[in-house]
Specification:
The structure is a single chain. This protein is mainly alpha-helical. It is about 50% helix and about 0% strand.
Length: about 180
């Protein structure tokens, strides 16, 4: 979710998990691991026949039934968080405010991408959730999302359109 642009270090001891890596990179690492483990010992190496076969195409993403990779997990997570903020009360009770604050604190500790979770924990310390109303929470979350977008080189979202995107739908009725 948060800093999606960072790729974890790959070592023989620690292979990054699927939720910490985008599918394209994960797939490439899997193919590399398979090709290195499949090589015969040097005494058994044979000269391959020369054939002009193009490399297999890069996958555009896993089939929908596969476990989520970092990008899909992030996209779905932001969808959930923005939808929660969109339906947060305009006048929340003290318990509503406490629940949302605790949710974000816990969420940042249990998010399955470890470096994303740590980045989000730092962001929460710098900018705690603004829970006074639906508007303040939605705007705070939009700013948090835009911080991540900047880190990973994606365009920022126009926060004035947050309710149109996550609650009301466009005025043209195309989502009705």
């Amino acid at each position: 979710m948060p800093a999606e642009g960072h790729q974890p270090e790959v070592t023989k001891e620690k292979v990054p998990c699927r939720t910490c890596t985008d599918f394209k990179s994960w797939s490439k690492m899997q193919r590399k691991a398979l090709s290195t483990s499949a090589k015969p010992p040097s005494s058994e190496v044979t000269t391959p026949k020369t054939v002009d076969t193009p490399p297999p195409p890069e996958p555009s993403g896993p089939p929908k039934h596969c476990p989520l990779d970092k990008e899909r997990l992030g996209r779905h997570t932001w969808g959930l968080l923005h939808t929660m903020a969109a339906y947060y009360p305009d006048e929340p009770s003290p318990q509503d405010r406490t629940n949302v604050q605790k949710f974000f604190e816990a969420f940042a500790k249990v998010y399955p991408c470890e470096y994303c979770a740590k980045d989000f924990q730092k962001e929460l310390k710098d900018s705690p959730p603004e829970v006074k109303s639906q508007h303040t929470l939605s705007q705070w979350l939009c700013r948090m999302h835009n911080r991540v977008n900047v880190k990973i080189g994606k365009p920022e979202f126009d926060c004035s359109k947050v309710n149109e995107r996550w609650r009301d739908g466009p005025a043209d009725g195309s989502c009705d």
